[in-house]
C-alpha cells in the first residue's frame, strides 16, 4: 500500500465560444469550441491499495459511485489493463457543480493521469486521451492539458496559444444539466426558432481569433434558468460577458487582477465570484513533469 501526500490539481475550463453544428444519428451533437483552462482547481489525493477496490471520499452528497467520474475513471483504467491494484481517492471540490466549468471531467482526467503513474501502467498521453472519451466528450482536453480548438463531440483537438487574460467568473445560484439544455434546444422548448434543425454554420479559426464568437446554448439556458440570464446581464454591465459550456457559469475577460477583483466586490450575495487567470497549459501537466 502506497501513500502520497500530494494534492493533484484538476483545473476548470472555459469555452471561449461554443457552436452547435448538428445532431448525429446517435443523438449526440457535433460542436465547435475553444477550451482554455483557468486558475481554479479541484484537488485530489490518492492512496494506492492492494485489494483492487476503488473508493472516493468527498463532501458531495448523494453521488453514487456509478455517477462519480473519479471512480469511473479509476475503474476504467484498472479494468482496461486488467490490473489488481485499487485506490482510495479524496476529492476536495472547489469548482462549482453544474456550472459548465468541466469539474467532473477534469477530476476524471487527473485520476487517469495520477493512477497511470502510481499503478505503473505506463500508458501514453494519446492512449489515456483515447480511453477517456468514453467518460465524456471534454475529458480528452483535460488529459492532453493544453488549450485547444475542438470539433466533433469536442474530442478532435488542435492546440492553441491564446492570450491569458484575467477572468471574472460568476456562478449563479442554480445547477444546470447539460442534457437538459441540449434536449430543450433539440425539442424547441424555448422557441421554435431555436430548434436544432437550424444548425450553426462552421467557424474558421482565423475568424474566431479576429472577431470572437458566442455560445449557441446561451438563449436556451437563459430561458430555462433565469438566474443565468440575470448573471449575464449584470456582468455585461462591465464588458462582453459570455456563458461557458451549457451554463450556469458566466465570465468576462479583463486586463488586470485588480479590475477583476473590483468587479467581484460588487456581486450580489447569492452569486459566487471567482477571479482566475486564463491558462494555456493545465497546472496538472506541470505537476506531472516535476
List SSEs in N-to-C order.
EEEEHEHHHEEEHHHHEEHEH
Mean of residue pLDDT values: 91
Structural class: alpha+beta
**What is the chains' assembly state?**
single chain
The share of residues in extended strands comes to 25-35%
CATH architecture of the largest domain: 2-Layer Sandwich
CATH topology of the largest domain: Ribosomal Protein S5, domain 2
Report the span from N to C terminus. Answer: 23 Å
Number of domains: 2
- CATH top level class name of the largest domain: Alpha Beta
Structure overview:
The protein is α+β, with helices and mostly antiparallel strands and 290 residues long. It folds into 2 domains: 2-161, Ribosomal Protein S5, domain 2 (2-Layer Sandwich); 166-279, Alpha-Beta Plaits (2-Layer Sandwich). The chain is built from 10 helices and 11 strands. It has helices spanning 69-80, 103-118, 125-132, 139-144, 178-187, 205-211, 218-224, 226-235, 257-264, 283-289, and strands spanning 2-3, 8-23, 29-49, 54-58, 86-92, 148-152, 156-159, 166-171, 242-243, 250-254, 272-279. Strands 1, 2, 3, 4, 5, 6, 7, 8, 9, 10 and 11 form an 11-stranded mixed β-sheet that branches. A hairpin with a 3-residue loop joins strand 6 (148-152) and strand 7 (156-159). It starts with a strand and ends with a helix. The model has no long low-confidence stretch (mean pLDDT 91).
Amino acid at each position: 500500500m502506497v501513500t502520497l501526500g500530494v494534492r493533484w490539481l484538476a483545473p476548470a475550463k472555459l469555452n471561449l465560444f461554443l457552436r452547435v453544428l448538428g445532431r448525429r444519428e446517435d443523438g449526440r451533437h457535433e460542436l465547435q469550441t475553444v477550451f482554455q483552462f483557468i486558475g481554479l482547481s479541484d484537488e485530489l489525493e490518492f492512496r494506492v491499495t492492494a485489494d483492487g477496490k476503488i473508493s472516493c471520499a468527498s463532501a458531495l452528497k448523494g453521488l453514487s459511485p456509478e455517477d462519480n467520474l473519479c471512480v469511473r475513471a479509476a475503474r476504467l483504467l484498472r479494468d482496461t489493463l486488467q490490473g489488481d491494484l485499487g485506490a482510495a481517492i479524496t476529492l476536495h471540490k472547489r469548482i462549482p457543480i453544474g456550472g459548465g466549468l468541466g469539474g467532473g471531467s477534469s477530476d476524471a482526467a487527473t485520476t487517469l493521469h495520477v493512477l497511470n503513474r502510481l499503478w505503473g501502467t505506463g500508458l501514453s498521453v494519446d492512449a489515456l486521451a483515447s480511453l477517456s472519451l468514453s467518460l465524456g466528450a471534454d475529458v480528452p482536453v483535460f488529459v492532453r492539458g493544453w488549450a485547444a480548438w475542438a470539433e466533433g463531440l469536442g474530442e478532435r483537438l488542435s492546440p492553441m496559444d491564446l492570450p491569458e487574460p484575467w477572468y471574472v467568473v460568476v456562478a449563479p445560484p442554480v445547477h444546470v444539466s447539460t442534457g437538459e439544455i441540449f434536449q430543450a434546444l433539440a425539442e424547441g422548448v424555448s422557441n421554435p426558432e431555436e430548434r436544432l434543425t437550424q444548425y450553426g454554420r462552421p467557424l474558421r479559426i482565423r475568424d474566431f481569433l479576429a472577431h470572437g464568437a458566442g455560445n449557441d446554448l446561451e438563449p436556451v439556458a437563459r430561458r430555462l434558468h433565469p438566474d443565468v440570464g440575470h448573471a449575464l446581464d449584470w456582468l455585461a454591465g462591465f464588458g462582453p460577458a459570455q456563458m461557458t459550456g451549457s451554463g450556469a457559469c458566466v465570465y468576462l475577460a479583463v486586463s488586470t487582477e485588480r479590475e477583476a477583483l473590483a468587479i467581484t466586490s460588487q456581486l450580489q450575495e447569492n452569486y459566487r465570484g471567482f477571479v482566475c487567470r486564463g491558462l494555456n497549459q493545465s497546472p496538472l501537466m506541470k505537476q506531472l513533469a516535476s
